[in-house]
Design a protein that fits this description.
Distance between the termini: 28 Å
Number of strands: 5
Number of helices: 1
Strand content: 25-35%
CATH class: Mainly Beta
Largest sheet: 5 strands, antiparallel
CATH architecture: Single Sheet
Structural class: mainly beta
Helix content: under 10%
Length: about 60
């Protein structure tokens, strides 16, 4: 498995069903930095080894 974030893109079918765990709004996939964004809360969820980390305590403010 590659360590390069660009090689760990999420499948579109997964992106289509992911929502914010707090507000249930659809998440936007920022492919350039390989993260999921909740525009409602202005936070980004990281993706580790192709697995989205959907924990509010692990978000980054954007």
């Amino acid at each position: 498995m590659s360590n390069n974030a660009q090689d760990q893109r999420l499948p579109q079918r997964l992106v289509d069903i992911l929502v914010c765990p707090q507000c249930k709004q659809k998440l936007e996939y920022d492919e350039k930095v390989n993260r999921l964004v909740c525009t409602n809360h202005q936070v980004a969820f990281k993706i580790n080894d192709g697995i989205p980390v959907l924990l509010m305590d692990e978000t980054e403010k954007i």
